[in-house]
Fold GAF domain-containing protein.
Amino acid sequence: MFETKGYSESREKNYQLLLKQLEALIEDETDQIANLSNSAALLNQFLTEINWVGFYLLKDNQLVLGPFQGLPACVRIQVGKGVCGTAVSTNQTQRIANVHEFPGHIACDAASQSEIVVPVHKNGEIYGVLDIDSPIKDRFDQLDQEYLEQFVVKLEKYL
């Protein structure tokens, strides 16, 4: 199991291994949904203390639920609304220590306490977001953000 809390050097090594596994998993596949599905499953396998991981894809100026692992989720999110919509409107990663303090948070799963959302791009345009929720507050730190952003950059090459 991938340990995200604790000694940062081992966490970095684990994240580096995760990036290599992602590349091996999707490098020969051209189908975007297959690659997003396997990416979500890979993150679900390796990250601890999470209750939802997946993608929302930008379609007609709204985010639509894509491949994910976890409980059923909100199907559509307006750009600029909630953590996911804010990530799209600002084109910046949103790392939220306590979702209940985030203005306009959309509670798809009442168990979620913290969240990280990373914009995903295709051909220089926003394609969607990677969304990861945790049932504990302040689950995601700077190291998580850096490596999840690298994860998305690697994934973007196969979309």
In short: The first strand starts at residue 52 and ends at 59. DSSP finds four helices and six strands in the chain.
